[in-house]
What does this fold into?
Amino acid sequence: MNIIACVKQVPDTEAQIKVKPDGSGIDDSQIKWVMNPYDEFGVEEALRLKEKNGGEVTIISVGPARAMETIRTALAMGADKGVHISDPALDNADAFTTASALAAVIKGLPHDIIFCGQRAIDDDSGQVGAMLAELLGIPQLTIVTKLEYTGSSVKVVRPIEGAQLVIETALPCVVTAQKGLNEPRYASLPGIMKAKKKPVDVKNAAALGISTDVKAKVAKFSPPPARAAGKIICGDDAAQKAAELARCLREEAKVI
Amino acid sequence: MAKGIMIVAEQRDGALRKISFEIASTARKLADQSGDEVSAILLGSGIEGLAAELAKYGVDKVFVGDNPALEPYVTEAHAQVAAKIIKDNDPAVVLFGASVQGKDLSARVAAKLAAGLATDCTDVKIDGGKLVCTRPMYAGKCFGEVVFNVAPAMASLRPNVFPAVENAKAGAVTKVDVAIDAPKSKVLEVQKDTSGKVDLTEANIIVSGGRGMKGPENYAILEELADLLGGTVGASRAAVDAGWRPQKDQVGQTGKVVSPNLYIACGISGAIQHLAGMSSSKYIVAINKDAEAPIFAKADYGVVDDLFKVVPELTAACRKLLA
It folds into this structure.
């Protein structure tokens, strides 16, 4: 099988996000960078498919020079090779541009199944997987928590509001991974050593022949609106506090 | 030139979902500022009758794609028809609901039209004739203002944030007959959640429990409170990772980002990745015996006490008030 996993380097979930004073972006000087957690599920599923069915896993990432660390992490987990799409003109890429860059690489590679995270936890757009599928002209299965490969198709489970869908799709297709799909492995020490020698192609936008013009852009970043100071409910015991809380929710907040 | 505001309505099993009324009302509000028309795309099988319901929420014109191939929802078929209708009618703005289906469809349609898309917006406005969207990023740790360089400007709106307001318009129906390529995907089964609970992303009230719940069996007291208030039970990552609650219940940066009217956090300390996922709730209540827990900094109402005593008392007090 030819399996592709797309990964993005993002700030760790524990990171505090500070907006630059001029609102042009976030201050990333203090940030610890990690592989997007949803992409980890995609990489893990790719590796499991390869281990069961044979084949090769290719990792692709769009990002600045530091994104190479994330590609190496995936290689250390067991992927075979990487493609790093690195170009300062893509630093503010929107989902369409990112998907175009990924599609340009993937069109030149054999591919049976392509994994993406269901969303990246930085911009939270959740668009790239579906856009990539459209640009490649293949089906998409987004937000997948279970996957079964049958040889020529995949059968997946997708949770939606109040239900789960079981969907079958012919290959090739794009699958976007949701938490619950698997438990991603850690890279082993030998894996980390081996990863250093695995091949990673570096390509820029010109080499891919894509436009770096964005369709949508974040014109201004701002911190979340401040919440008014709350009040601590006082009382002699739990019953009193609970009664007062219930009264506040009913009479002040009017939410119950 | 691109003109007017179009929404893509969402129906399931022959009923419009609440988000459809929220986006219709929002579109109406924006259109009234510019004197524009609101149109809607309604896709499915045997659903023409739903057009009248959209009209009630301010839709002037409904494009109905009624075809057995559009039921149940399959991305490829819906995207093909929606993109064709958008292309033929050239709206300036297209709004979707940021539901699971709406997010799946909007990204595919945006790629077909080479359009920009802002996901999960919490505010939209027209500024200088152009759509400007505000949306949480980093699960709400910061907000971004999105502008568009091409038409149509596309956005999906977070459920439960925009009010649904009745404002009856004509809702004139135009049937569209688009040839649909045989999709490569097929829905084999729909496994319905029989609990009857509203999904966290659409819930008005969430009662959520964390590590302080001590074990899965103790969630019964949260279920009881949630049932009484018509709410849904959520959980922190710690509780989900411990196997106490299913993954679908997780609130936070690697779970669901929620915006209920009321979020009651029980035994949740308030790790930054959890706070990110719920801080856009309208009212936040924290119940925790640790007065230093970071959750209290976000809470509108805090109770410093043992949740195992407070929650049952709160349920009793609410029952009395609601009686």
In short: The mean pLDDT of chain B is 96. The domain at 200-322 of chain B is CATH 3.40.50.1220 (Rossmann fold).
